[in-house]
Design goal:
Strand content: 5-15%
Distance between the termini: 54 Å
Number of helices: 3
Shape: globular
Structural class: alpha+beta
Helix content: 25-40%
Number of strands: 3
Order of helices and strands: EHHEEH
Strand order of the largest sheet: 1-3-2
């Protein structure tokens, strides 16, 4: 039987930190929040949650250049376009 857990590709900062801990990658939730707040690590804002893509995080940790173009906000009541 496979002991590997299935994780979503996009997850909150908290869940990303838990996954990193489970996979024995030394990243704290505090470090993730600091990188996101400093604009170093891209994220997607969904309501109040900031979601991190696991593959992008791994590239970031390997030192690869990451595109930090601002992402659209899809919060509560957002239609992703102009209001009429």
């Amino acid at each position: 039987m496979n002991d590997m857990k299935e994780y979503p590709q996009m997850a909150s900062i908290h869940r990303t930190a838990l996954r990193a801990k489970n996979e024995h990658i030394g990243i704290s939730e505090h470090a993730l929040r600091a990188w996101v707040d400093a604009g170093q690590l891209p994220y997607v804002q969904v309501g109040r949650n900031r979601l991190i893509n696991w593959n992008i995080l791994m590239k970031f940790l390997e030192g690869e250049k990451i595109d930090n173009t601002p992402r659209p906000y899809f919060g509560r009541g957002s239609r992703g376009g102009k209001r009429r």
